[in-house]
Each structure stands twice: as C-alpha cells, then as structure tokens.
Amino acid sequence: MLPPSCVYSFTGLCLLFIAAPLPGHSHSLGRVSTNSTSLSYSTFLQFLKSHHKTYPAGSQTFHNRYKAFLESIQRQKYLNSFTTSSNASSEAYYGINQFSDLSAGEFARMYLRSHFTGNYETIEPGKSPASERSLPLRFDWRDKHVVMGVKNQMSCGGCWAFSVVGAVESAYAIQGHQLEDLSVQQVIDCSYMNSGCNGGSTVTALRWLNQTQAKLVRSSEYPFKAQSGICHYFSLSDFGVSIKGYEAYAFSRCEEEMMAKLVQYGPLTVIVDAVSWQDYLGGVIQHHCSSGHANHAVLVVGYDKTGDIPYWIIQNSWGTTWGVEGYVYVKMGNNVCDYYRMKKIPRGFRIRNTPTIGRNNPEMCRKWIAILNKCSLDLILLVIDEVGSD
C-alpha cells in the first residue's frame, strides 16, 4: 500500500509505457539499484562529467550539490520500490539524470512554475462528436508529422509558454500548413499577465493570444534566451500565426471525451502535478507522490490502449536527455498525475459564471464544466480549432 503522502489515483490525462523496453534509449548512469545502500563519491564525479557540470572542489556549493545528489538517490530507490515483478518491464523507473544534483525544493522552484489565476473563462462546450467506440486504440499526432521536436526550457520557468506554443504549432500544421518552429520567447516576453520565466498560466497566455490577436513569429526571428526580456513582438515580420479563439474544459474521469478532443483537434495543453518527474527515466507512471496541486504545463500528443496498460503520450519541455527522449508515459484511468487542466487550441468560446461543483458530481462528466481548482482530480482542456497566418 502506498503511504498517505502518495497518490495512486492517476486519472485522465496520463500516459503509460509500452509493455516492452524502450528502444534506442538509455541513460549513462542508468536506474538506481534498490539493493544499493550508498553511492560512491566517484559516481557523483561521473555524473558531473556526463552532464558537463562543474563546482569548485571543496566549496559549499560542491557540498550542497553532492548532498542533493545523495538525497536524489534515496528518493529514486523509494520510487522504484513500487515496481511489481509482474509489470516490471512497463512500469516507470527512476534514476540519475540531469536534475539529480537538485533538491526537490530547488527543482520545484526552477521547473514547476505553471499556475492558474483566479480570473478565467468558464466554457460549457457541446456534446462530444465522437464516442469511445469510434476512436482508434492508438493515436499519435507525431505519426502525422505535425508535432515539433522536444524543446528545452532550461532554467526558465516557462513551461506554460512551451505548452501553449506547442499546441499552436500543431494546430497550424494540422490545418495543412508547414510545421513551423514558433517563438516561445515571444510568449514569455509579451504575455503581460504572466511572469515570464518566473511562472505563468496557460489559460492567461491563450487569453492574451486570443484577445490581442498577436501573431507568433518563427523562433529564428525571436529566439529563446532562457530568461524574461522586453517584448518586441510588434517588430516587422513577413510571417506570423495567430489563433481565432479557444475552449477550456475540466475533465474528471472522462477519458473518452479527452481522447475524442485529442483526435478531433490535435495535441492538448495540460497542467499536471509533476513533483515525481524529477527522477523519471522511462516506463509508465502509475503512482507517485503528489504535491496536491497542478504545477507544470505539458503537451499531450497521443495515447495507446493496445497493451495491458493504457497510457497517454506526453511531450515535456526538459530536453531530449530527460525521460523517453523528452517524453513521459502516464497511465490512463485514475488522474494519475492530477491532470487538472488541459488545453488545446481554438474554437471560439463564451463566458458564463463558474458553478460550484462537488468532486464526485456526475454532472461534471456530462456537462464538461471548466472550473479551475474546484476539484483536485479534474482537467482543463483548451482547444484551438482555427489559426491564421500572414
């Protein structure tokens, strides 16, 4: 049984891992053995070399990084202890990666900076046009070449911007245009209701894009700098992509509706609880320790229900050396990572007052009321169904 501080109910928007080992993906230091009781100093030095990190020998910084590294090893052993022998090949496994010299608090302050504000639009969309029976068992937008490659937010807490831009890129390509690498830095600098690399809201970013009709330029024109800067998106450009509207949804154990929206419109912007993702190497996340709230924005690009464990396929923004070449698989079924809120890109919206809805109210599933922070196991989906360019 999981301890009280952990959550075993991962519903909604989580991805799982294929029952077979991941092809073509390895980590230089590998997963941590649960039989090991200590980690040698030489292993820490190997970690520093592998990840091109340097700290002055004998300094307080070196001591702090080494201490955090040892704490990471213990945390990884704990997370790996939930693996069962029957599903060992497909369950999530944890080990040394580029974040292993950060404490859990440091990691959260640097990378888990997505949030929701109190002011937001509440949308009550129509009934799903597709049922679970009409949906394929496996669907991945990457197969259609409309998903941009994994990006790296580095030390910038701009996951919210990466998620939104990724959804816009895919929405634009799905409409028959060339897949474009759009500027995340532009959203970080110019979405004035957010806090740039100090955190932000995906809902607020989409509201800004929709209300201002700002045109996202190519990243080559407005490159990522891993820090907040002065907005200059009004500079002259011969190209720009804007959205025509968006929809937001809250989901609570309504995965067929989520699947239908994913297949119908494209990759989904989602807010998740990613506290246990710091040490993730691969496999399907099925249970984790929860912080109790959503804190990280990602992009759901597909799902797979062909194996024993159905899962969502999620693109992260921590580079290709993290996870499964930048992706994470999370189990469908119990809101595994508190997939509080989802969003995709446009379809128009209408504003209504937010109702007070109890956590187990079945009307939420039937009516899809977006509520933000009312129910801890719900999701909010933003759908973009139209984009334009000049």
From TrEMBL:
It comes from Leptobrachium leishanense (Leishan spiny toad). The keyword Kinase does not apply. CDD domains: Peptidase_C1A. Its EC number is 3.4.22.42. One of its GO terms (cellular component) is lysosome. This is Cathepsin O. Pfam families: Inhibitor_I29, Peptidase_C1. It catalyses: The recombinant human enzyme hydrolyzes synthetic endopeptidase substrates including Z-Phe-Arg-NHMec and Z-Arg-Arg-NHMec. Keywords: Disulfide bond, Glycoprotein, Hydrolase, Lysosome, Protease, Signal, Thiol protease, Zymogen. GO terms for biological process: proteolysis. GO terms for molecular function: cysteine-type peptidase activity. The keyword Protease applies. The lineage of its organism: Eukaryota, Metazoa, Chordata, Craniata, Vertebrata. Its main location: other. It is found in: Lysosome. Residues 1-26 form the signal peptide. Coiled coil: none annotated. The gene is CTSO. PANTHER family: CYSTEINE PROTEASE FAMILY C1-RELATED (PTHR12411). Proteolytic enzyme possibly involved in normal cellular protein degradation and turnover. Belongs to the peptidase C1 family. Residues 135-347 form the Peptidase C1A papain C-terminal domain.
